[in-house]
Amino acid sequence: MGFPIFSSDTVFLFKVDMDIENNKSYKPDWTLDNHGDEFAIRIVKGVENRPENLRQKSFKRKEFTTEELVNGVLEGNRILLAKTITLIESTSQNHQLRAKEVLTQLLPHSGKSLRIGISGVPGAGKSTLIEALGVYLINLGHKVAVLTIDPSSSISKGSILGDKTRMEKLSKDENCFIRPSPSSGTLGGVARKTRESITACEAAGYNIILIETVGVGQSETTVRSMVDFFLLVLISGGGDELQGMKKGVMEICDAILINKADGENKRKALMAKAEYSSALHYLYPST
Questions:
Q1: Does the pLDDT of residue 4 top 60, yes or no?
Q2: What is the side-by-side order of every strand in the sheet holding 144-150?
């Protein structure tokens, strides 16, 4: 019978097991003399993973009362304003009852802002325009709230809510509040509770409300009834003079902006401006 052969790893593990039994600390062979526990490897017995040994941690969020939400909004607390809008947008029946109470108390403090709706085709540059416009208005001394509407997936029902990433400078300003919301299948370019969210922002002291709709087509006109000024953002190559004569979003806007008119696109943008200007003579203004 031959002698058993052990590897160095086996010997090390055997010594570790002995140290566990003797409740000692293991020190490597290269430990210097006259040193303390600097080079010690402390080994303790493991604890069996049983349910009674596991800590039950609770991450329950704090529930704010109606008075706390109302007072927080009136004081301009952006965190409580965001929580109030979340409560307003909730589909829970209990939340809807509380949201009604909150809005009832906030309503007398609203109605003192200028509401600007910004709509346009997908990719027209609405978020980038709002970034520049918002910074300009804040430099003039205004408080700006931006409500962006993001389309919801018809398959997963989710939304990216990523418009805020295009407003990096604006989102860092303490005089600005940006709230992305999903459309949740609501047609018209806005969300189901956009009007109520405007009321909350006005009560919080924001005197200019910018509403960015989803990328819309010709029939998304709901935002017109919510705002004082409606801006339609278009890009060159979006259609000819006949396209501009069609009814719908073209006839309810207060101004049309041909965006991305730089570089080689400048000539195309000027042509688009001339075509739309000619077409608008056949449309009656909505206001």
A1: no
A2: 176-182, 144-150, 208-215, 114-120, 229-235, 255-259
**CATH of range 112-282; options 3.40.5.10, 3.40.309.10, 3.40.50.620, 3.40.50.300:** 3.40.50.300
Q: What is the token pair recorded at 144?
A: 């700006």
Q: Are 119 and 215 in contact (CB under 8 A)?
A: no
**Whole-angstrom distance, CA of residue 180 vs CA of residue 160:** 9
To which H or E segment does residue 155 belong? none
Tell me how far apart the alpha carbons of residues 151 and 121 are, in angstroms, rounded to a whole number: 13
Confirm if 143 and 178 have CB atoms less than 8 A apart. Answer: no
**Per-residue pLDDT averaged across 257-267, rounded?**
88
Q: How far apart are CA 245 and CA 82, in angstroms?
A: 41
Burial 115-126 (b: 16+ CB within 10 A, else e): bbbbbbbeebbb
Which tokens sit at 48?
A: 């069996």
Structure tokens at 96: 């809807």
Residue type, 266: K
DSSP class per residue in 252-279: H-SEEEEE--STTHHHHHHHHHHHHHHH
For tokens 């086996």, the residue is 10
pTM listed for this prediction:
0.74
How confident is the model over 204-246, as pLDDT tens digits?
999 999 999 887 766 677 888 899 999 999 888 766 555 555 5
Query: Domain residue spans in the chain?
Result: 8-45, 112-282
Q: What is the pLDDT of residue 214?
A: 84
Model pLDDT, residue 73? 97
Q: What Rg, from alpha-carbon coordinates, does the chain have?
A: 31
Cα separation, 187 vs 117, in Å, equals 16
